[in-house]
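Our consortium's second objective concerns turning raw sequence data into structural hypotheses that experimental partners can test. To show how far this objective has progressed, the report includes one record in full. It was chosen at random from the queue rather than selected for favorable results. The single chain below, 447 residues long, was entered without modification.
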Amino acid sequence: MTNPQPSLTQPSIPAFHVMTKPVGPICNLNCTYCFYLEKEKLFGETEQFRMADDVLENYIQQYIEQQSVPEVSFAWQGGEPTLLGVDYFRKIIELQKKHANGKKITNAIQTNGTLLNDKWGEFLAENDFLVGLSIDGPPDLHDAYRVDKRDKPSSHLVIRGLNILKKHKVEFNTLTVVSRKNSQKPAEVYRYLKEIGSGYIQFIPLVERDADSVAKNLGLDLSQPPELQKVERNRLVTEWSLVPEDYGQFLVDIYNHWVRHDVGKTFVQFFDVALGNWMGMSGALCVFSPTCGTAMALEHNGDLYSCDHYVYPKYKLGNIMNQSIKSMVESKEQRQFGQDKLSKLPKYCRDCSVRFACHGECPKHRFMKTPDGDPGLNYLCPGYKRIFNHMKPTMDIMCQLLRSQRPASDVMQVVAQQPDLAPMAPPKRNAPCPCGSGRKFKACCGR
């Protein structure tokens, strides 16, 4: 398939990301809060939720060929992708080798871990997969919502899977959904994740609205994105969704420990992305970037959607069996989707002092009104203001350290001298630098 000609008015997009769902929404668990399980209702009753061989090869070939970068990263998700079995993923590896054409190919798989065994461990290690393991904290917090089809706990099965990964030395990180329940115990969650060996931690805020009438007409129990909600716009969030202020405090409590003890040792995605934005390098994570639109979702049947959170008929870009991925990501509709994140940001957000760190976060969460009465305010805004304003003094110091070609972890020497992490006043320019270098502040971290 030949690549389409780039638009005369828009530059060609050299690289993009697709979250691939070869098993669709099918999963062996029945997590209370999962927004994707119900996507099964968008397909026919006789649907076979398994990406067919011709669709799989077409996708792999396109995804490699149509990106102008030396390294191409595949991300496999679901549902639960391990339901397909190891042999299915062996086929994926062979197809990637067939179409690599000199490019480096990497793979990541997001899993609940409950089906992992030695066969999986050997395969993942042999093929250098990065595994994202879903775990919401200690068993009592994890099992509150992450249950199987019989409403039985799953934490013991996840830990069994984690031990398989450790046994075979498979690289992994953890993904923790922050709900109304575990948001109340940040120290317990963070300590547990470190105890089980997670060196890279992702926190995903849980925000889901009860179904409006439009969503119910599609057979869905959860509401659609804000712009699709033509009626009942002010419906409340589900009982398991976060309270914004609680999420802000959850992050503050973990940050206070991290910035004192774990900088450079434990990588928390939220803090790493924030530091990048503080350094003026926004773009590492779509939700905290000014625009979006280059991170899409591919369903098992080849249908490509604007985003993982926008798998609705309106946001179907097409099917890879009759359109190229590149033509869809560069389409007028998808470019507009990505630009809307910026253009629809209300004035209240545009004037915000921490806009550079937040950029309005994900449009999926923009269903509140600003104090001025304008639509489009992010539901989590109070929480983000809390954490970003709290971390500002130490983020500023880390930026100064990095610009002085020193490691950000030196910030721990500074905060060790602070009795608390209330907003810190910077030292006077001629005072000794609090990092302990022996130089004046103006010639060290304050340079």
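The partners drew two points from this record. The first helix runs from residue 53 to 65. The chain has a mean pLDDT of 89. Both points have been shared with the crystallography group to help prioritize constructs.
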